[in-house]
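Changelog-adjacent note: as of this version, every example in the card shows the full chain rather than a window. The one below runs 310 residues end to end.
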Amino acid sequence: MDGALIASIVAATLVAGTPLIIAALGELVAERAGVLNLGVEGMMSVGALAAFVTYQGSSNAPLAVAAGLAAGVAMSLLFALLTLSLLANQVASGLALAIFGVGLSAFAGKPYESAAMPMPPSLRLPGLADIPLAGPALFNQPWPVYGSWLLVGAVAWFLYRSRAGLALRAVGESPGSAHSIGYPVIAIRYAAVAFGGAMAGVAGAFLSVYYTPLWSQGMVAGRGWIALALVVFATWRPIRVVLGAYLFGGVMISQLFLQGLGVHLDIPAQWLSALPYAATIVVLVLISRDAASLRLHSPVSLGQSYRPDS
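Full-length structure tokens:
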């Protein structure tokens, strides 16, 4: 296997893992605040459509990403209204949001299914991109790939080094205690849910603008559910999200490179397409065996509604 092929595999893995990192980090922040939003798939789908429509009309990729972000926030605030203000069940509301988002994007996206746009140029980092082997793989990527790396550091710093992050984690551990010392529990949870929706929208925008610049029904293809699984895989820690995302990203693109190398496998294509999801199930089963570790790292109030005392 020559160096150029290795660089191509690494580069493709980074691109495939980027939307998973972005969406999973958004969900991680929301869950750290004690809110379980299972609607990531729906928010990504709506964000992907909003971004593509904007990109087609403006040919401005950053503006399209901003549109995807706004669409994700709007969807997440609908969820927040139901669960934080009206105290609806978070699991049921999240599942409804996922179904609604996928259906809404499929319906509204019908006129755009035959359209395609040119791929936005990659952001080549001078000097670094000339490093043999590693340079072309790591430093000649779409700008959201670099943004995802910065996002990991920002989320880790926010959660563990900032006063606001401490308040958010306190709300996730014990909202009653946080409220008793003056923290606005509902406002913090609204902000966390909105951030999660924003990141899901950006992840969807990456798919429809940078990954494959077109719109097709079902193009998110379960990545929202994988992002949810990644949060558990990472035991609610940002750095581990990166490792899991690139692991699943590598599994996603492995079938393409196997076919490109001329490897003949007597396996139906549908089985190869199912590999990332099968890997997700296997990983979750293995992690679930260590129940003590999950209890240690998961937010205590995750999925529990809270109404401050009046």
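Structural remarks: The radius of gyration is 20 Å.
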